[in-house]
Write a structure and sequence with these properties.
Number of helices of chain B: 19
Shape of chain B: globular
Radius of gyration of chain A: 47 Å
Radius of gyration of chain B: 22 Å
Strand content of chain B: 5-15%
Strand content of chain A: under 5%
Strand order of the largest sheet of chain B: 2-3-4-1-5
Distance between the termini of chain B: 30 Å
Number of helices of chain A: 44
Order of helices and strands of chain B: HHHHHHEHHEHHEHEHEHHHHHHH
Structural class of chain A: mainly alpha
Distance between the termini of chain A: 102 Å
Largest sheet of chain A: 5 strands, parallel
Oligomer: heterodimer
Largest interface: A-B, 59 and 59 residues
Largest sheet of chain B: 5 strands, parallel
Strand order of the largest sheet of chain A: 2-3-4-1-5
Helix content of chain B: 40-55%
Structural class of chain B: alpha/beta
Number of strands of chain B: 5
């Protein structure tokens, strides 16, 4: 029983308090008490029904109880005045308050106060009003008839609308209700006043308000404001028109009321009205109201009326009492004091707006800090989120500024709170931002939410008014199905629409420079972390993560350059350090789990460009010989030849670091289609290549003429340019390396290029002593036919083949400075023997061994592992083996077949191999020429044992 | 049952509307709205197919899905009782069959291939990007793997290396010639470079301009990966591809302008030999063979599909006997089992009917030597046997991958 009484009293107090300071909570309470369950909310024109239609006696009694208390001063005044019939005015005021309370309970509650103010000053005012009323009011017959007609329209419209609504004609029901209201006002007013001006004005005003109320149902906050502003504008226009229509009457009516008040009571009323008008939450309205009050008071108080200006502003903008009280709390219970008292500063958040007042026009000191602090701890994060959302929902500037200031610390805390790599990656995800600690909290919240029943009569766990922090109010944005929801989109709504999956998209701007600067950087770091963790090997993963750690270490130094102030940098420092720490832990974890998983440094297939110099081994002797030949007085033309995959192109690409600096190698790939498209293209390509490769050596040659010049006169254009360019080389020489030079022959054969090119090349060799030529290909000039050998007389062939054993060993043992694979005894020797130090096969086997070692989680290459690697190499290197098998066995199909049979016979050791017929003899010669087989005493044998094994195990005859 | 696949699919009116809206939002290099040719190139589908699809004519489901994916619209087939792939809904059974057979699987439903993924990653994601040839017989999942790579670029290449993947289907008309490939490449780069043109369309024939455009990309640190599906298609236009291989080999290897991921039924070197070409084009590739799925992978696929229902060992054995881990047949067996509510006998009858044309196709795709080995049920040239084992046609124990296939082989003369 006591609990029921105390609950009644407490709720009554809340009713009173909320009507002044927290109108949205009052509205919430009304909604609950009107039995509108969340899950069964009715829709339609009466969705926001007041207790005019659906009375809740519990609430009504509380309302009347509060009214009675508020009317007590007036009752005392009436009792003291001794005019017994003045009790009639008390009753009338009560009726008026109750009437207002039907639709505007908030306003209804404070009306008694100005009544008291007026009555205390002019106790006979009501007497005079009663005496004057017959003169002011319309004749009784008009009055009764007008009210009757208005009621008739209202009742019939209301009834019809109800019927239509039950039949689900929502829109029609609304329109009927709207029209009947308008008609009731229209006819009722005209009958009473017989004044079309007033009738139309009033009807228009009422209709407009109704229209606005209807639109407000599904419109956003800005639309609501627009409607209210428009309604106020119309209201003031009507007042203005009334003033013009009969200024004396209007002025008199206002002045009669004002003239009865003394200055303090006038200011009290100004303050009270301003205080109430603050609920409209319009920034400029406060100033407008203050001006109006000064103007109203001017007639009686003259200069003293100016006091109304600050009073109105103080009350409208709630500087007193809301702001000053809150200021006191936020200043006193600051972080230092709370720390000293061992109190949680976050717990004072509920003692501040928006909990104690919904009107915070100016930000409070420490408020943003207190709010941000709640996001630091698991047990207060939900409170923080709810508070943040409440502030976000408010249009009052003080809240907006507070959350804007708190945003950066909150996000910084969240990022600093990640504990694992997975959390780090998730922390920047927008859609799938598995919140770091929100899940179980939201679970708690939703348990309550789901069990909540707002009907007090049959609620097993009723709403507990003592628990001011019941979480259900603002958590309806959290996904109740998954019980997890991203936190950042909740506090930065613009992120909610952002799709992280979109490649190359930047996240939307939040309006906060710190977040807009740091968020993309951290997001990229998280993406890179994901990518690094997907690396093919632990070694790759480690390297990727190490790079990210380096970037994070440098980040704080870069932030001032991105426009962040030192304070902001300091704020984000813990988050950056945290991320760095987590990535370092991840690196350690990778190292632990990988047990030294190897980075695969070997490369087979593509030639080794200069950036892979670490795995380009040997060939220095070859380069030295090349230099000697180029410096020879006879300036021979060099022909570098050798089987495919012997490393010719890699050698040419790596010449810049193998040759002395006064010899500049120029690389021309004749496989490139454009080089042999025409003579003009060849000359243009030659000049481009010279320009490119000399520029990379820091030389500046004349600009390249237009391509058209080369097409119209290819050789003169080339010579003109060389005449200008070569003198700029100083003591340097150019070595023109024509790779895959056989393609020139193909182009001549196809008619794309004429034999004049040979003349030109020969001429250049003879006349430009700063130019050296090196032709690289599979064949020698003699093999290409007399045409070639006739043109290029002084030719020195250089055959490139296998690496030296020590070079091959160096490649296997030291392909990368961080390479840690160990070879069991004899394995390196076995690989050298198997591959015969052929560069491609060394890289292929090396790569396969590393892959197998990683698959078997070992760092020791054993015989068994080598056998697995060989099988893998046969598959991965299939193009190489097939190419030898099909291209180097013969030219004609008969020769190919014969060549393949020779190889099979040799691989299976079926000696001697019969080579008497012509095809077989030709095939044998070809196999010998291209080093597929060699003479081994009396019998032939396959040169490379690994290829021999392939023939034995994998070859299929064409 | 299942016949509708051959007749193709039809998009719903809503889906077409969404597609047209999505098309209107896309802009090509000239800042103009995408044409149907643009969609065709981007989706790797014939432009006539695109036209038919957008005009609400039936097209094959693979193309329909590709077009929708390109435009970022979820494919929604028009519901038609006659087209229903599942005979009827049964109690306790969802109406959507979770298994896909015949069409490439979407990336999110890609299972297994860990070894292949690792090998591709080791090539295109290496310190210096290199080319790879994905080899697999018909319907082994080559296109699915390519789509998976395209959808998950950062799984293969670190994001900091700025992967840019352009996928071209050489069977598609717009990119069936060398010039078409260059234009497809250009458009692909534009799409992923947010409208930046590497070179002008009228410069497609100017190899220097193409070279400059690709060099600019390379020098900006972009790692360009060009994926060519259905590489065999060049066989039908061989005369147009003379010299193309050498030029692209040069671009992909010596110049390092891009890396190639080529999907083909046979290794490129073998194909070139068959086509009478002696180009060393294939030399730059590493070969990755797609055989059957790993046992754990296909079993997981089946279990995930039957989510909520326990899949018995007997069922798994049944699928293994019919499919041998080959993705098409695993999906087919599981789909039909799902359709027949777990009735193995009915499912097997349906499987035989559905699989027969595909198995015949597989048989015809084998070389004579391979057919000989298959006829002898694993006996014969060891090299051929091992090759067929790598392709997944013969099991490790020498049996054929599917007993239905074995029956079909027995019936062949």
């Amino acid at each position: 029983m006591n609990r029921e009484v105390s609950r009644f009293l407490l709720e009554s107090w809340q009713l009173f308090y909320w009507s002044f300071f927290c109108p949205s909570l009052l509205q919430q309470r009304i909604n609950e008490w009107l039995k509108k369950r969340r899950k069964e909310q009715r829709k339609g024109i009466f969705a926001n029904s007041t207790f005019l239609f659906e009375i809740n006696f519990y609430f009504t009694f509380q309302y009347l109880f509060v009214l009675a208390i508020l009317s007590l001063p007036m009752a005392i005044f009436v009792s003291l005045s001794g005019r017994g019939w003045n009790w009639l005015f008390v009753m009338l005021s009560q009726s008026l308050l109750m009437g207002l309370g039907f639709s505007l309970p908030g306003i209804g509650l404070w009306i008694p106060l100005p009544f008291v103010a007026i009555y205390s000053q002019q106790s006979d005012l009501f007497d005079k009003s009663l005496q004057n009323s017959p003169l002011v009011l319309a004749p009784l017959s008009h009055l009764l008839f007008g009210v009757g007609v208005a009621f008739l329209f209202l009742f019939s419209g209301f009834s019809l609308a109800l019927i239509l609504q039950k039949k689900s004609y929502e829109s029609l029901a609304h329109h009927i209700f709207w029209i009947s209201n308008g008609l009731s006002v229209l006819f009722g007013t005209w009958i009473v006043t017989r004044d079309w001006f007033i009738t139309i004005s009033l009807s228009g005003f009422i209709s407009f308000i109704q229209f606005g109320a209807w639109n407000q149902r599904e419109s956003d906050d800005s639309a609501r404001k627009m409607v209210i502003n428009a309604a106020l504008l119309v209201f003031f226009c009507i007042l203005l028109l009334l003033w013009i229509h009969d200024p004396l009457i209007a002025a008199k009516k206002i002045l009669v009321i004002i003239s009865c008040l003394s200055l303090p009571w006038f200011l009290f009323v100004c303050g009270l009205i301003s205080f109430e008008c603050a609920k409209l939450k319009q920034i400029l309205l406060g100033i407008l109201i203050a001006v109006i009050f000064v103007a109203i008071g001017w007639t009686k108080f003259n200069l003293d009326a100016l006091w109304a200006f600050p009073v109105s502003l103080i009350c409208y903008y709630r500087i007193f009492p809301d702001y000053l009280l809150a200021c006191f709390i936020s200043l006193v219970f600051n972080q230092s004091l709370c720390k000293w008292l061992s109190l949680n500063s976050a717990s004072f958040l509920t003692k501040l707006p928006p909990y104690t007042s919904e009107f915070l026009w100016f930000p409070l000191p420490n408020h943003s800090q207190i709010l941000a602090d709640t996001f630091r701890q698991k047990n207060t994060i939900l409170l923080g989120l709810r508070t943040f959302q409440k502030m976000q929902d408010s249009s009052i500037p003080g809240f907006k500024l507070t959350i804007q200031k708190a945003l950066a610390p909150i996000v910084a805390y969240r990022f600093a709170d990640v504990r694992t790599t997975a959390e780090l990656i998730d922390s920047v995800k927008i859609r799938n931002l598995g919140d770091l600690s929100l899940n179980y909290l939201s679970m708690y919240a939703y348990r309550d939410f789901c069990e909540m029943d707002f009907d007090l009569s049959d609620d097993p766990i009723p709403y507990d008014p003592y628990d001011d922090l019941s979480p259900y109010l603002y958590l309806d944005t959290i996904d109740p199905v998954t019980l997890s929801h991203p936190l950042l989109p909740l506090i930065i709504p613009s992120l909610d629409e952002f799709n992280l999956d979109t490649e190359f998209s930047a996240p939307p701007k939040s309006g906060n420079i710190e977040i807009d600067t740091l968020f993309p950087i951290l997001q990229q770091t998280a993406r890179d972390t994901t990518a690094a963790l997907k690396g093919g090997s632990s070694a790759l993963r480690e390297r990727g993560l190490e790079r990210l750690v380096d970037q994070l270490k440098k980040l704080p130094d870069h932030l001032p350059g991105l426009g962040l102030k030192p304070q902001a940098v300091k704020r984000w420092q813990p988050a950056i350090e945290r991320w760095q720490h987590i990535l370092e832990l991840e690196i350690a974890e990778q190292q632990k789990t990988s047990q030294g998983e190897l980075l695969n440094p070997f490369q087979f297939g593509n030639p080794l460009r200069p950036d892979r110099a670490a795995i380009f081994k040997g060939r220095q002797d070859f380069a030295d010989r090349l230099v000697r030949l180029i410096l020879d007085r006879n300036r021979p033309t060099l022909v570098l030849h050798g089987p495919r995959r012997a490393g010719k192109t890699s050698f040419l690409l790596n010449l810049p670091r193998l040759l002395p600096s006064d010899l500049v190698p120029i690389y021309l790939d004749m496989q490139q289609g454009s080089m042999t498209a025409s003579e003009g293209d060849f000359c243009y390509g030659l000049v481009r290549a010279i320009d490119r490769d000399t520029r990379s050596q820091g030389l500046q040659l004349p600009p390249i003429p237009s391509r058209q010049d080369f097409y119209t006169r290819p050789y003169p254009a080339l010579q003109d340019w060389l005449d200008l360019a070569l003198p700029k080389l100083g003591e340097r020489r150019l070595l023109l390396n024509l790779d895959e030079f056989e393609k020139i022959g193909s182009a001549i054969k196809d008619g794309r290029i004429s034999e004049r090119l040979f003349d030109q090349l020969r001429s250049m060799i003879q006349h430009y002593d700063r130019l050296g030529f090196l032709f690289s290909g599979v064949q020698t000039l003699e093999e290409l036919g007399p045409r070639w050998s006739n043109y290029f007389i002084s030719v020195v062939p250089m055959e490139m083949h296998y690496l030296e054993p020590h070079e091959a060993e160096d490649l296997l043992l030291h392909p990368d400075p961080e390479f840690t694979l160990q070879y069991d005894t004899g394995i390196v020797e076995e690989i050298l023997q198997l591959t015969r130090c052929q560069p491609y096969l060394l890289q292929l086997i090396g790569s396969a061994i590393v892959n197998q070692a990683n698959l078997q989680h070992t760092q020791l290459a054993t015989t068994a592992l080598l056998q697995s690697a060989i099988q893998s190499a046969f598959t991965n290197g299939e193009p190489y083996f097939t190419n030898i098998w099909t291209e180097f066995t013969g030219i004609t199909p008969a020769e190919v077949t014969a060549g393949q049979q020779i190889l099979i016979a040799l691989a299976q050791r079926n000696f001697p191999v019969e080579t008497s017929d012509e095809s077989t003899a030709a095939a044998r010669r070809r196999l010998l020429r291209y080093h597929v087989i060699e003479r081994g005493g009396d019998i032939d044998k396959i040169e490379i044992p690994l290829f021999e094994q392939w023939v034995r195990e994998r070859s299929i005859e064409s | 049952m299942g016949e509708t696949r051959d007749r193709g699919v039809l998009a719903s009116a809503e889906c077409i509307q969404e597609l047209k809206e999505a098309q209107a939002r896309q802009r090509n290099a000239e800042g103009k709205v995408w044409t149907q040719t643009d969609i065709a190139i981007e989706s790797g589908v014939d432009d006539k197919t695109v036209s038919r699809f957008l005009n609400r004519t039936r097209v094959d489901e693979k193309s329909a899905i590709a077009i929708c994916q390109t435009l970022g619209v979820k494919f929604d087939a028009e519901s038609n009782p006659q087209d229903t792939k599942i005979e009827s809904d049964r109690t306790g059974q969802l109406s959507m069959n979770p298994f896909i057979y015949g069409d490439p699987v979407p990336p999110e439903k890609f299972y297994g291939r860990r070894q292949a993924i690792l090998e591709v990653k080791n090539r295109i994601g290496a310190i210096a990007s290199q080319s790879v040839n994905i080899v697999g017989l018909r319907r082994m999942g080559k296109t699915s793997l390519l789509r998976y790579i395209r959808s998950n670029p950062t799984e293969f290449i670190q994001a900091e290396r700025q992967p840019l993947i352009v996928s071209l289907d050489l069977q598609s008309n717009p990119v069936s010639t060398p010039a078409g490939i260059v234009e497809g490449l250009r458009r692909g780069i534009i799409m992923r470079q947010q409208g930046k043109e590497p070179w002008k369309q009228d410069e497609n024939d100017d190899d220097w301009a193409v070279q400059d455009g690709l060099e600019a990309l390379r020098d900006r640190g972009v790692r360009l990966i060009v994926m060519l599906d259905e590489f065999e298609a060049i066989a039908s236009r061989l005369e147009q591809f003379q010299g193309w291989g050498e030029d692209w080999r040069s671009k992909a290897s010596t110049q390092g302008l891009f890396s190639l991921v080529v999907a083909s039924k046979r290794p490129i070197s073998e194909m070139y030999q068959g086509l009478g070409l002696t180009s060393p084009f294939g030399n730059i590739f590493s070969t990755t063979i797609l055989g059957g799925l790993e046992r754990e992978a296909w079993q997981k696929l089946v279990r995930d599909g039957f989510a909520g229902s326990k899949v018995s060992a007997e069922t798994l054995d049944w699928i293994d006997e019919l499919a041998g881990g080959l993705p098409l047949y695993v999906q087919m067996a599981a789909a039909l089992l799902w359709q027949e509510s777990g009735d193995l006998m009915r499912a097997e009858a349906a499987f035989r009917m559905q699989a027969e044309p595909r198995l015949r196709e597989l048989w015809q795709g084998l070389s004579e030597a391979e057919q000989g080995v298959v006829r002898q049920l694993g006996d014969g040239d060891r090299a051929v046997v091992e090759q067929l084992q790598r392709f997944g046609v013969i099991r490790a124990d020498g049996r054929l991958f599917s007993r239905v296939f074995a029956e079909l082989v027995r019936g062949q003369k």
